[in-house]
Automatic annotation (TrEMBL):
Name of this chain's protein: DUF2505 domain-containing protein
Protein's organism: Sandaracinus amylolyticus
InterPro entries: DUF2505 (IPR019639), START-like_dom_sf (IPR023393)
Pfam families according to UniProt: DUF2505 (PF10698)
Length: 170
């Protein structure tokens, strides 16, 4: 099991962050634009929850790519506790798999939280915590390391995109 944490400040209050974060247009701009995913479908969005089905563009070492195949997709299910300003999410295998995908139920699990705290002056701090667990003898650690590296790169891209979207709130 591997964990990762990242924090950064935003020029908006927590309510502004959640307004952007739950906006389906922002979600598409993030996944299809900034992150370069092959597909992103907003399955459900409410004031306190969101379900996405995404197909990432993979840049994986050979053994991992052979395991996952080129049709790898997942669903991201998240819920918001507004009182705590905390988003809890988990990656789940989609109900309808791409026919090219190789079903690997619960071999790799990813979950996390996003905590947003007001820092004063109309600003906030976002803290992401990620847990990755790959249950594959011999290559589990490699999968976890690659997933952490990809997540950290995605956080940097998301931070840049968020800054532009948050600026529109003013």
């Amino acid at each position: 099991m591997r964990t990762a944490t990242e924090s950064f400040d935003l020029a908006c209050p927590p309510e502004g962050f959640w307004r952007v974060y739950l906006d389906p247009e922002y979600v598409r701009a993030l996944y299809l634009g900034a992150l370069g995913y092959r597909a992103c479908e907003v399955l459900e969005v409410t004031d306190t929850s969101r379900k996405l089905r995404v197909v990432p563009k993979m840049n994986l070492p050979g053994p991992i790519e052979a395991l996952l195949g080129d049709g790898f997709a997942y669903e991201d299910h998240g819920t918001l506790d507004r009182a705590k300003n905390e988003w809890t999410w988990r990656m789940v295998q989609p109900e309808q798999l791409d026919p090219r995908a190789k079903p690997r139920k619960d071999v790799v699990t990813t979950r996390g939280t996003i905590r947003v705290t007001a820092t004063g002056g109309g600003r906030c701090r976002r803290t992401d915590e990620l847990v990755i667990e790959a249950k594959l003898f011999g290559i589990g650690g490699m999968i976890e390391a690659v997933a952490e590296k990809e997540t950290r790169a995605a956080w940097a891209k998301e931070r840049a995109l968020l800054a532009t979207w948050v600026a529109k709130l003013r």
